[in-house]
Amino acid sequence: MAKSRFEYVKSFEQNDSCLPNCWLVVRIDGKGFHRFSEVHHFVKPNDDRALQLMSRAAQCVMEEFKDIILCYGQSDEYSFVFKKNTQLYCRRASKLMTNVVSLFASSFVFIWPQYFSSQELQYPPAFDARIVCYPSDQNLKDYFSWRQADCHINNLYNTCFWKLVQEKGLTPAQSQEKLKGTLSSDKNEILFTEFNINYNNLPEIYRKGTILIRQKKGNTESQTPSCTTSSYYCQQNKKTRPRISMLHVDIIGNSFWNEHPELLES
Amino acid sequence: MAKSRFEYVKSFEQNDSCLPNCWLVVRIDGKGFHRFSEVHHFVKPNDDRALQLMSRAAQCVMEEFKDIILCYGQSDEYSFVFKKNTQLYCRRASKLMTNVVSLFASSFVFIWPQYFSSQELQYPPAFDARIVCYPSDQNLKDYFSWRQADCHINNLYNTCFWKLVQEKGLTPAQSQEKLKGTLSSDKNEILFTEFNINYNNLPEIYRKGTILIRQKKGNTESQTPSCTTSSYYCQQNKKTRPRISMLHVDIIGNSFWNEHPELLES
Amino acid sequence: MAKSRFEYVKSFEQNDSCLPNCWLVVRIDGKGFHRFSEVHHFVKPNDDRALQLMSRAAQCVMEEFKDIILCYGQSDEYSFVFKKNTQLYCRRASKLMTNVVSLFASSFVFIWPQYFSSQELQYPPAFDARIVCYPSDQNLKDYFSWRQADCHINNLYNTCFWKLVQEKGLTPAQSQEKLKGTLSSDKNEILFTEFNINYNNLPEIYRKGTILIRQKKGNTESQTPSCTTSSYYCQQNKKTRPRISMLHVDIIGNSFWNEHPELLES
Amino acid sequence: MAKSRFEYVKSFEQNDSCLPNCWLVVRIDGKGFHRFSEVHHFVKPNDDRALQLMSRAAQCVMEEFKDIILCYGQSDEYSFVFKKNTQLYCRRASKLMTNVVSLFASSFVFIWPQYFSSQELQYPPAFDARIVCYPSDQNLKDYFSWRQADCHINNLYNTCFWKLVQEKGLTPAQSQEKLKGTLSSDKNEILFTEFNINYNNLPEIYRKGTILIRQKKGNTESQTPSCTTSSYYCQQNKKTRPRISMLHVDIIGNSFWNEHPELLES
């Protein structure tokens, strides 16, 4: 059987290496998670189990790919930054994206029972992913500011929306109508006057999202356990397993970056 | 909080639409499956449970993405063909690749217990994926011929290799050494004279791999059950669920394509 | 002087090979030719000298790059088709585009005096270029139909526009206003009733544009002289110089392609 | 005539915008200039007329495209840097490359007679071009260091090579053989002992190449005349025409960049 006669088809594969000397950001995003969250009875506007599960799956990815220096997640999305000069998979876009997103998806299902003990997974979820090159540190910071601002805006809206539905008995359509065209200040006011809620006192995980970074040696910040429960797996990884910190802080201002100068020096 | 100030970073995303009027093939491939197969005690050279699990996961992908007309799998890889003029995700390469590979990976974990009841999954696996454009029908046929020829060559080698290890007591290194430089005919001869095996009588799933195609209406070929066990999920999909046939036949010659003319007419 | 310390910058060049087994079309287009045509007092709506010059420059390109099988030009644009399986410059998009466009531009200036003896070239013109892959023969035919339909539509409009300006004394603005929203049939009617012109009797070069193809051996169709006048150059190329035919015929219907079956067989 | 039926072919054009916030460098390179230089009897190893012509053509390009901040040329190549945030042609790679290279080529022919009065142009030359994105200032500096180091290395070699041929009567093959494997220091030594030439005293244009930058206002450095001789053209451009300086200095060290801080601030 002449193998070589057909091998020419391999030449149709196109090179998709990312530009050198750029930060590489892979962002994954749940496919059809509106329906997924309904089928699995997610608490609205924020389901703690789902948020923790997302971050644990992200942690699995970060443990596997040592060149990821920082992750940021909110809602059903997560972003992963590879260090500027990573040579992983020769910086091939498709290799980087698909390894990250498939490990995230398989981890999500693998560790689901740890977070949703009373709620069986009904069907396997899909995620999409994209990869983006950012030439400068400022571009990278602005990327995370963009995602965190998005988190804030969505959370403020969703908090109002669901309060109106859950506590005032509005239909989703009525709630949507009431919030149409409102400014952030209007929504803060609604929360305060109608529900006695000071938005800024809500848990930071909802308002800021979740940041994963590797601990510097000797650091004793709250460390998360490794992503897998299997005794076999843990045993293999105990000694070399990376220590990862989970934060829910502002990354739009300079403080975060000033406190973690090693991130941009990577 | 000025959202717009940061949104410029979105402009760094690059358009990666695939050329129109080409067959789009997504191929996924297990990451580190040599180790994965050892950890999970896969039977060598072919583990029926693993092969079935791979095909079941591919079926889940095919059920979700209706524009996939044909899949082909062997070992730890699977290829998915989208119809020539699919407009799914505007033919964006990253969207197509990542949705396919993440759903494959999450399905693989989700349905693992159905095939490996006595063997707990030790850790979540990753898969990579690539997408390739093929302009002509002949290119597409040659692609599958390439993969099926690869299946044959690897299977012949692996069958010999493991027979020598398992039945003749050779070490892997000795077995490898013995097979070095042998032709297909030599390996067939070894199997026949030393192990009384006629290679061509081995199960076709090992020698040919697995083909998934959609059944034409009214077709009563062996139909596989839907990929998910959840009563909830099945209920939702019972009526509209696609009927998919699983074949283990030659796709290098013309017979397969002549018997399924609708594939290339899609 | 350490050369190697800097050579890493070469790795930033990105591979841009065109997909195999596709027709490659390079289309060049004059930059700012509205102004260029005014400065050089082009006859409106069609300047025979300019049209001939464009085609002669295209011929120079076709003589240099033997893998070009067909060219089509109209107004200030020209398209060049490379044969489907050309390996020229490893099918690198930037190499193909820039070689074609730069030779076209330098030839345009080089042979200008042959066509504009009484009109000195005032400044060197620029052209842009793009390259497009077409997977099927039908796509390629449709590409040329698109350009020839464009030629017809623009020429019909321009013929009316300039007749109104040149013979009826309308200002350009008035002429434009009069033609706004008119159909092809309206413009044919204006030409016939107001100027006694039957559009279909106008020279085919204006209505159909110009096609360049290589002559089959023994063919005695009107052959154009080689693009260069220099005795030196001609001497070098006399014997091997390709014979090129210039046609002004319909390429939307099937006749042209039926009469030149070798084009698509290339 | 149904235009729209064919217009779908336009959708096969692929977006090729360059990554934002990167320096864009277009490098053009003469096609077959070994032969071109022989046909036109270029003085070896350096022909002043040819070097000046190349720089004058580059100047034409720089005058036309205001976003070019810096050019560097040597031998038959020239590099053009667009400012980091240029929006010209929406940063489309093919538009940028082809406009630059075609204007360079047409200018080369247009102004040829000014530099080669006694030597008629025998045929129109072609140039290829490529575009490369550089994320950081250091990458950009290293790019120019790479080209200038290349200029030095080639010039040292060529100077030795031609001295051996022209003054010692070696054949080209003998000269090549003699220089095979020699270090820079060896070649300096040959020049000094055999030809009494101190390499460092050779004209800087040969050793360093040519840099074109825009003059800061009020600057009275040696200014080159505009690229075109036509009285018509000059008249149009007299007042707005950019003032460009030509330098032959080291750009590998920091001095050049320190003296021209505005370049990287652009």
Number of helices of chain A: 10
CATH architecture assignment of chain A:
2-Layer Sandwich
* Fourth CATH level, the homologous superfamily of chain A: tRNA(His) guanylyltransferase (Thg1)
Low-confidence stretches of chain A at least 5 residues in length (pLDDT < 50)? 227-239
Shape descriptor of chain A? globular
The largest β sheet of chain A comes out as: 6 strands, antiparallel
Amino- and carboxy-terminal Cα gap of chain A: 50 Å
SS-based class of chain A: alpha+beta
* Strand percentage of chain A: 5-15%
Quaternary structure state of the chains depicted = homotetramer
User: Which fold name fills CATH's third level, the topology of chain A?
Assistant: Alpha-Beta Plaits
Q: Name the CATH class of chain A.
A: Alpha Beta
> How confident overall, as mean pLDDT of chain A?
91
Name the chain pair whose interface involves the most residues.
C-D, 66 and 66 residues
In percent, how helical is the residue content of chain A? Answer: 40-55%
Total count of domains of chain A: 1
The Cα radius of gyration of chain A reads 21 Å
Strand segment tally of chain A:
6
The secondary-structure element order of chain A is: EHHEEHEHHHHEHEHH
Taking strands numbered 1, 2, ... along the chain, how are they ordered across the largest sheet of chain A? 4-1-3-2-5-6
Could you describe the 3D structure shown?
- Four copies of one chain form a homotetramer.
- Chain A has 266 residues and is α+β, with helices and mostly antiparallel strands.
- Chain A has a single domain, classed as 2-Layer Sandwich (Alpha-Beta Plaits), CATH 3.30.70.3000.
- In chain A, 44% of the residues lie in helices and 14% in strands.
- Chain A has ten helices and six strands, in the order βααββαβααααβαβαα.
- In chain A, strand 2 and strand 3 form a beta hairpin.
- Chain A is globular, with a radius of gyration of 21 Å.
- Chain A starts with 22 loop residues before the first strand and ends with a helix.
- In chain A, 44% of the residues are buried.
- About 5% of the residues of chain A have low confidence.
